[in-house]
Amino acid sequence: MAWREKSKKRLNMTSFNIAQGIHAFDYHSRLNLIATAGINNKVCLWNPYVVSKPVGVLWGHSASVIAVQFFVERKQLFSFSKDKVLRLWDIQHQLSIQRIACSFPKSQDFRCLFHFDEAHGRLFISFNNQLALLAMKSEASKRVKSHEKAVTCVLYNSILKQVISSDTGSTVSFWMIDTGQKIKQFTGCHGNAEISTMALDANETRLLTGSTDGTVKIWDFNGYCHHTLNVGQDGAVDISQILILKKKILVTGWERSITVFRPQNFNQFFIQPEEWKGGIQHHDDILCAEFLPPQTLVTGSYDGQIVLWNNSTENAHHVLHPDYQRLLKSKLDTKPQKLLSAGRSQPSHPVADHSTTGVCNFEIDTEGKNAVMRLCFLKARKNTAVTGGANLVSCGGSGYVRFWDTYKKQLLAEFLAHSGVGSIIMSTDKMNRYLTTGDLDGWLKIWNIEEYCLNSSKNKITKAPTLIRSFQPHEDRISSLEMCEPGGQLLIISSSADCSICVTGVCNAPVWIFGQAKHWHIENCLFLPKRDTNLVESEIQKEISLFSKEESCLDPTEHSLLNKKNKDDSTYNVGPSEDINLDIKYKERSTCMKETQKPYYGEVIKKSFSTFRSLNIGALEELPEVNKPAVLLDPEKYFRREPEEERPQIPEAPSLFKTLKAVFDEKNLFPKEILDHERKAKQLCQEKSCEVKKNRK
């Protein structure tokens, strides 16, 4: 060791003499300790100023220690021995608090490198050409968990009205969107391999799961696997997206080319990939893809490139990049043809020459600052090709969201959605009114983009659209986002590495977690809290007096424009003086927005979703006399009871004995013995009745 004192130029040096030597050491600046990995199976702790003996010795390894590293924040120490046993020590008490074995590759002779990423709680250990990663389990919290392990993807099935989620433990769960109840669960879908992404087919009857084991499996909702797509060619790959088209299944994530499968050739259980005719056009791994009917396919890569393809011919025809405007100015003299073909002065017709398409040379983004994590076409904007404006949204590295015009090959707008959190993901609703973004810290933001970038402009827009809501539903990275409208109610579903899946509304709606003990009812819960009626009435009176003065100075045309402007603004902005019921169907709301005036009893009532512009209160008209209905005039006629009819009494049938006797008497056929017996029986009965009377007396 060597150090220099402030007043001297000469270095002071000292040395440690350790028996048998050491393999590695580490220094803790706060505790001023040096840890050594000894060949003699010991981990020694040294004070730099005391070289005679260690201040502490950690016993426990059965083989020589080959790596040590401090866990600075917790004042702990990692040590790794040659028999592949990892120990975690408490420095203060000099005790082993955890031992990990049998989790590493099987090899006898290996060279080991050891690194602990303290910021993310990950430990990397190399074994020759293999790398082992150990991630620290997050501390147990009281937060409700939807899955046992980190959730990787979430989908919404609009036919069954169910939410489908997957996790790193290869488990797929199905939930009811209306109540949050779990319906069923598939375990071990890809063995122990992580499910990184999922997708639903066009009919939403088949589920595709992509895993780190290099396969994509096609399932029905009974848990039966119909096909296995061999994406990684029997190797492990990182699948980031599965895009299902009419006649193709595209898989991306781990290389610069697109892996394609054609369902018409699915005649076996194991399916091999086919060749993509367009070849390789990206400089880095493709992370995402999106399709716009009839033929436009776009792919985004880690270096920020967005390549436009013709899906029918599978050929690329344009490349978009956020730095092309800068490169156009700086390298215009040296390479004018290439940059003009890729920049904003590019003509609208496609260029098929490979010298002017996706092979232009520029600085490759190795840090992922421009990485394209998600791509979304704004399909609800039908006339963008004629009127101009943005029809493609991208997001990713550095927290930026960018709006593109793919017809004019132009970047129209970019804004910083999340600052200082790295890459982000996003999702939009089918009508392209809202954009939802999520970051690595669990924060979610909802933006109003209905009126954003509707027209082309020469200057790039840097102003962000209206931010409706910003909140933190998760404690860790948001892994997936989905927007859906069950029953016309717009919902945002988010999954996270904190093992939870949340659902909420656009405005200040509550956040529910799938798996919580108390089930919810979406149709009854999506509303803002009711306010005090007295407070509302007082505010209305103030607004009436305020706006009546303003509107008296406006002519009818200005008044209608003001009313229209107020209508558009108040649809999405939630102010403190508003009472908005999110339970209203969005289709009904949109129709109400279009009707600025509605006739009612010969007068015109102007509709507004925000504060009242005007309020006319007149005397109620007197109701005309109403003739009483016949039910009230003659109630006996309708409600009296009808007299019961007298029914004829049916005589009782005679006994069998009397009938036979009558027959015999009539014909003198009754035997004498029977008559004598009857007389004796009557006498006995009379005698017995007399005896009973005497006894009673």
UniProtKB/TrEMBL annotation:
Top-level division of the source organism's lineage: Eukaryota
Protein's UniProt keywords contain Transmembrane helix: no
Keyword presence, S-adenosyl-L-methionine: no
WD repeat residue numbers: 58-99, 144-185, 195-222, 279-319
InterPro entries on file: WD-EF-hand_domain, WD40/YVTN_repeat-like_dom_sf, WD40_PAC1, WD40_repeat_CS, WD40_repeat_dom_sf, WD40_rpt
SMART domains: WD40 (SM00320)
UniProt cross-references to SUPFAM superfamilies, sorted A to Z: WD40 repeat-like (SSF50978)
Gene3D superfamilies, per database record: YVTN repeat-like/Quinoprotein amine dehydrogenase (2.130.10.10)
Assigned keywords, A-Z: Repeat, WD repeat
The protein's name: WD repeat domain 49
Native source organism of the sequence: Pan paniscus (Pygmy chimpanzee)
Lineage, uppermost ranks: Eukaryota, Metazoa, Chordata, Craniata, Vertebrata
